[in-house]
Every structure is written in structure tokens, then in C-alpha cells.
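hiii so um. not sure if this is the right channel but i have a protein structure encoded as C-alpha cells and i wanna go backwards to a sequence. like what aa goes where. can anyone help
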């Protein structure tokens, strides 16, 4: 059973930065692509970023240039570095793993396992 635990969320002012972490256990990290999604109240879960097994990365247009997804030096950890945060980035952020084909990387139904989420709140 694969388990994912997110951390690093919190309250930050607009323009600030946060780094989220996703610790993955129960599987070899290289078996999966790792993605971040987010869900704001009353909205659907939306794709944020993914790092594939090839290490290629892809981002939602809304975060491109502000967020960076990366694998950490600590084994089986993935980070989401978030900069120039905006109030509209406020959401619960989830990490997940899967083996999506490129055309499906933004579809949450493709992914297998999910963490419990971490709240990010950006004040204006």
C-alpha cells in the first residue's frame, strides 16, 4: 500500500512563498509520476504540476513560472516550491501518484493514491 503525507502548508501573505513536501512510502519512487492537485471550497480538484518518471515536469498555466515541482535529496520526497502566491492559490493541496499518459496528466481520475492534503491560505 502506497502512502503519501503532505506537509508545509500554512498562512502566507500575497507575494510570499511556501514549500510543500510530499513523503511517499510503500513503493519505489521511480515507479510513478508524482503530481500536485488543489481544491478550493466549492470548486473541483484541479491539476497544479506533475513530475514524471522521466523527470519531465508540467504545470498548470495558472502557476507556470511561479511554482516548481522537484524530487528531493531525501529519498521518496517530492516538493512543490510556490512563489509569488496569490489569494486565488488558496486551497487544500494534495499529492498523488500514478502512471498517466501525457494527454491525461491533468485528470485526477488517472491517479492511484492520494495524501490527506495540506491547507494553503494566501491573504491579500
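sure thing!! here u go:
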Amino acid at each position: 500500500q502506497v502512502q503519501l503525507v503532505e506537509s508545509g502548508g500554512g498562512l502566507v501573505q500575497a507575494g510570499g512563498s511556501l514549500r510543500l513536501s510530499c513523503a511517499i512510502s510503500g513503493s519505489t519512487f521511480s515507479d510513478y509520476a508524482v503530481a500536485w492537485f488543489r481544491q478550493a471550497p466549492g470548486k473541483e480538484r484541479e491539476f497544479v504540476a506533475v513530475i514524471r518518471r522521466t523527470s519531465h515536469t508540467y504545470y498548470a498555466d495558472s502557476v507556470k513560472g511561479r511554482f516548481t515541482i522537484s524530487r528531493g535529496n531525501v529519498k521518496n520526497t517530492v516538493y512543490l516550491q510556490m512563489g509569488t502566491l496569490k489569494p486565488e492559490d488558496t486551497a487544500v493541496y494534495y499529492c498523488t501518484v500514478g502512471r498517466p499518459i501525457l494527454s491525461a496528466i491533468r485528470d485526477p481520475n488517472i491517479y492511484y493514491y492520494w495524501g490527506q492534503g495540506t491547507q494553503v491560505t494566501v491573504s491579500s
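oh and The chain has a mean pLDDT of 94.
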